[in-house]
Amino acid sequence: MIKKWLLPVIALMPLFASCEKDTDSNPTLRFQEGQTFKLVTPTYDTNRIIDLKGGQPVALFCNQPDYGGIPMSVIYHVQVSLDEKFMTTTEGVEFRELQNTASETTINVNANELNDTIISLYVLTNNIKTEEFPKNTPMPAYFRLRAELTNGTGVCFSNPVKVENILAEYVAPELKAPQEELVFTGSLFGDNWSTWYKMSPMVQHTTDAVSEFKAVVYNPGNGLFKFGRAEGEYIGFDALKEVVGSSKGEVSGVDDGFGGKNIQIAAEGWYTLHFTVKVAGTELEYTLDLNPAHVYIIGDPAGDWTAGDPSHEMTPNADGIFVSPAFAAGGELRAYVAVDGVDWWQSEFTYNKNTQEITWRTDKQDIKFNWTDLGDEYSISCAAGQKLYVDFKNGTAEVK
């Protein structure tokens, strides 16, 4: 039996041995660090404008890098610059590599990404604002390819090429009135510009075209503040189109030492800041409605549903805590800040019974009847004789 098997095995050995030979018909992967490959200069009509915003791509064509004559799977990365020196060096040259890649030697560069990249490079190198990017101004751009195999090896670069008459266009995003909140900081509440406080939106008074926000604040006298759509945006007195309200005479602009003006409220006291933000063409217009703060309870615990009843008004104590009259009966807590031109429920608030954090009513909550629509933790049960205590500075409240 052993002899019968030996002959076939021995006969096969030359076949296996022949596969170990390296001949011209068996190409092997070869790659030399620093090698380059050919990127063909595009031949466009000299009068043709490549309109990127119109969706016209820049078309590039290259030869695959030489990996030993083997057709390999290659990833091509497009690099772009606006600096002519990119044709000879990358030293000290601003350029960007686009996120969109290609796997074929014919590459249609993504028009939208190239448009945004050219704008960002131009803004950076010319030290201008994005909205100052020149309109209807075709310009040259310089391209180079970085190639690599799919496993990340075999990295090499093409020669750079110049493409004329590329038209990029900056389109400002659609301007909308802020929807979620405004914020403010300064020396109100006795702070030293160390805290950003939120102003909450008014229910059914917020659209893309116009929105309204409010906050109850304490002014220690000649208090200063600025506001913004987000923390870190300091909008001052000069941005106010108008100041209205019974306390408008207390408002003035004070030099902030940086070429702008802080908003100053002269007389000491508690105020309601009521901002209206309106889209006016390409800008936002801000109106400040300033009035003394009036905070009320209403509903069953108050004894009736009469809005603005002086007997339902809360008053601040020496510690800056607003305290309600004793509740006349039990029931769900309902409380609000009086704002001109706004129904009481459009500036209503409650608090989370687990955290005591104040929660303002907003359009997103879709409250139809009472605070249980938002969650049981926001529906505060009151008993006769209890009172509501509200700390607007720290954003907390409690019934006890």
CATH architecture of the largest domain: Sandwich
What is the tally of helical segments?
A: 2
Number of strands: 29
What is the CATH level 1 assignment of the largest domain? Answer: Mainly Beta
Helical content stands at under 10%
β-sheet strand percentage: 35-45%
- Classification by helices and strands: mainly beta
Average pLDDT works out at 91
Chain-wise SSE layout:
Layout: H1 2-18, E1 36-37, E2 39-40, E3 50-51, E4 58-62, E5 74-81, E6 95-102, E7 106-109, H2 111-126, E8 139-149, E9 156-158, E10 161-167, E11 182-186, E12 197-206, E13 210-219, E14 223-228, E15 240-244, E16 251-255, E17 261-265, E18 269-280, E19 283-292, E20 295-297, E21 313-316, E22 322-323, E23 331-332, E24 335-337, E25 348-351, E26 358-360, E27 381-382, E28 388-391, E29 396-399
Give a verbal description of the structure.
The protein has 400 residues and is mostly beta strands. It contains two helices and 29 strands. The protein folds into three domains: 31-167, Immunoglobulin-like (Sandwich), CATH 2.60.40.10; 182-292, Immunoglobulin-like; 295-399, Immunoglobulin-like. The chain has a nine-stranded mixed β-sheet with strand order 15-19-18-13-12-11-14-17-16, with no helix packed on it. An eight-stranded antiparallel β-sheet has the order 26-25-24-20-21-22-28-29, with no helix packed on it. A hairpin with a 5-residue loop joins strand 21 (313-316) and strand 22. The termini are far apart. The relative contact order is 0.09.
